[in-house]
Design brief:
Layout: H1 11-14, H2 23-33, H3 36-43, H4 47-52, E1 58-62, H5 87-90, H6 126-130, E2 138-143, E3 154-162, E4 166-178, H7 201-204, H8 207-228, H9 230-235, E5 241-246, E6 251-255, H10 257-265, E7 282-294, E8 298-310, H11 323-331, H12 336-345, E9 351-355
Parallel strand pairs: 1-2, 2-5, 3-6
Antiparallel strand pairs: 3-4, 4-8, 5-6, 7-8, 7-9
């Protein structure tokens, strides 16, 4: 009598096909993933992924909330509450929080000591998490909200390019209103009937003062973000692009390869009054249209564009930006109807202003 045949698992079914993928291909997949939380979860799947995750080139960090510098988790700002109007009370105390939870289980590649690759901290900042990524080239950080409080219905957007100091900044503002789109019209530039001049009421009803407040507040927000990035830049010499934006889409700070190189070669000049980079003396070009129709059934009342660049006489370390580079920067600063608005306003009459460093 023959013994009963034993039932064995099919060896082919036990083989993990992902083990057949070369490391280069796995890294390509992880780079497409980008999100730091998802990467943290992937690192817990296997020892191989645990070793590969710190080698990714493209990383996206989303900040859930902000806490005071000297506070803890219980001091976190309640982002559901009305946005504070004063930028100093909201942004100068920025501390980035709760992004490293998925990484708690990661272990150091040696594995012998069992020491976590990402230490468990009372508060977790991108600086701490990103130190475990050794090959980051493209980094994008998203804050939970914009920094400049505005009245309801007011549109305010800015984009700044930095090296060791401000290189260029463009600000777009106005009151966003709905309009009934004309048949077949995708967007109309402002009428030339006003000759491109500002109405007298612009000076008397506080319109100019309001735009000065927008400008200063946006520059403070940009310089504060720039100051907070210094540790990340110093810790990651492989960085090629760095973008710090907010979920509201209000402001974007960007640094490319040339800007990052210039940042490392020149000493950062901090403001004496707060934790931000000093804003250099600047020349500003202000352009205005009382009413500007946009594509998509929208319009801007009191549409304003402010183009800012450091004054040629300013002595703070940083490279001067040519007129052609500035125009290209403004043209590509905003997307969709707001990009249309910026291009339309660039054709308007220019009003020159000067601002001292602060």
């Amino acid at each position: 009598m023959h013994p009963k045949a034993r039932i064995h698992a099919d060896p082919a079914l036990e083989l993990d096909r992902t083990d057949c993928l070369p490391d280069a291909l796995v890294l390509l997949i992880l780079n497409k993933l980008e999100d730091v939380r998802s990467l943290g979860r992937c690192s817990a799947v296997s020892k191989r992924l645990n070793a590969l995750v710190p080698l990714v080139h493209d990383v996206y960090v989303k900040i859930d909330r902000v806490v005071a510098v000297d506070g803890d988790a219980d001091d976190a700002l309640n982002l559901a509450s009305p946005k504070p109007r004063h930028i100093f009370s909201h942004f100068l105390k920025l501390m980035l929080f709760t992004i490293a939870k998925p990484f708690h289980g990661m272990r150091s590649p040696g594995g012998a000591t069992g020491r976590p690759l990402f230490p468990r901290l009372a508060t977790h900042s991108p600086v701490q998490v990103l130190r475990s990524f050794s090959h980051v080239r493209n980094l994008r950080v998203e804050l939970p909200s914009g920094d400049v409080g505005t009245e309801e219905g007011v549109l305010l957007k800015w984009r700044a390019k930095y090296g060791s100091t401000l290189q260029s900044c463009v600000i777009l503002g106005g009151t966003l209103v709905d309009r009934k789109p004309a048949a077949g019209a995708a967007g109309q530039e402002p009428s030339a009937e006003d000759g491109g001049s500002m109405p007298e009421s612009f000076y008397t009803n506080g319109g100019l003062k309001l735009r000065v407040v927008w400008t200063i507040s946006s520059l403070i927000a940009a310089s504060t973000r720039h100051y907070l990035l210094r540790s990340i830049i110093n810790d990651h010499p492989t960085l090629r692009t760095l973008v710090l934006e907010d979920a509201d889409g209000q402001g974007i700070l960007s640094m490319g390869t040339e800007q990052l190189k210039e940042f490392r070669e020149n000493q950062l000049c901090a403001s004496a009054c707060s934790n931000r980079t000093q804003v250099p003396a600047c020349s500003m070009k202000l352009k205005y249209a009382p009413y500007l129709e946009l594509p998509g059934g929208l319009a801007l009342q009191g549409a304003t564009l402010v183009v800012i660049k450091p004054s040629a006489a300013d002595g703070i370390g940083g490279c001067l930006v040519s007129r052609k580079e500035t125009e290209a920067f403004v043209s590509g600063a905003f997307d969709g109807p707001f990009g249309f608005a910026a291009k339309a306003l660039m054709k308007r009459r220019t009003y020159l202003l000067e601002m001292n460093g602060f």
